[in-house]
Each structure stands twice: as structure tokens, then as C-alpha cells.
Amino acid sequence: MPSANGVVDFFLHPTFNLLTTSVTNPTGIFNPLTGNVVLTPSVGISASFGFVWAVSSAPPRAGVTLGALPTYEDRVFDLVVTHTLGSGLVVVTDRFSTHESNGLFFWSHALPDAALFSVFPNFELAVEWVIGV
After folding, report:
1. Cis (ω within 30 of 0) for the bond into 26?
2. 101 and 70 in contact (C-beta within 8 Å)?
3. How many domains does the chain have?
4. d(CA 86, CA 40)
5. CA–CA dist 35, 118 (Å, integer)
6. What is the pLDDT confidence band of residue 110, given thresholds at 50, 70 and 90?
7. Are 43 and 25 in contact (CB under 8 A)?
8. Can you give the CATH number for the domain in which 88 is found?
9. Which helix (H) or strand (E) holds 37?
10. Residue 11, number of CB atoms within 10 A of its CB
11. In which domain, by residue range, is 28 found?
12. H-type alpha helices, 3-47
């Protein structure tokens, strides 16, 4: 018997050939991100599948492991993603930390309320939404 699960999964996490990045659609992100930054539905988080990031500036003392894509000895940023339940309780649904110079992050659950970035001192991130084409 056919299942609707495949269809739902397709719309929650489409294949890579149906995704693109955008800083203007659904709404722009003020790049670069530094310090503590909260991205909310007013900046398009609820219309995205996630985001891509790239370090646009790093401190010279951060240390780097050379390779195809640099990895820093220092942590680049921490991320906490929240959702609000029907009762009004705000719950954390994702936690993420990275040392990578760039990458892709998908929301575990659709329609988050906020993504709280803590970019480590002297790092700057360029962030773009991952949206459907």
C-alpha cells in the first residue's frame, strides 16, 4: 500500500537539486553575523529548510588545519534552534557547534521560531537561507 511518508519527507527535506541559497528571499539576512545574533520568522527562518554558512573573517590566532576546507582549532559558532509548543512553552530542538569554515545545516523540525547564533570573538560569518527553487 502506498505511503504518504515519502511525500511528507520530500517537502520537509527536498533533494539537493531542488534547493538553492538566498539572502533576499524570503527575507534578507544582515551579513556578516558577529557576536550573539537571533534569527526569527521576521528574517525568513520559517520559510527556509536551513542555512549555509561560510567564515568571512577569522582571527589569525584561531589556528587552522589545512586541507580542501579549513577546520579551525577554535570553535566558530554555536547554534540553538527553538520551537514554541501550543501551550506557549519554548523548547530547544537543535544544538550545533562547529569548527568548520563552511557548511550546510538543515532544521530537524520544520518552521522553527528562532535560531540563536553565538559567533565566537573575532569570527564573522556569511549566512544564507536554504530555500526551494
Report:
1. yes
2. yes
3. 1
4. 18
5. 6
6. confident
7. no
8. 2.60.120
9. strand 36-39
10. 11
11. 5-132
12. 5-12
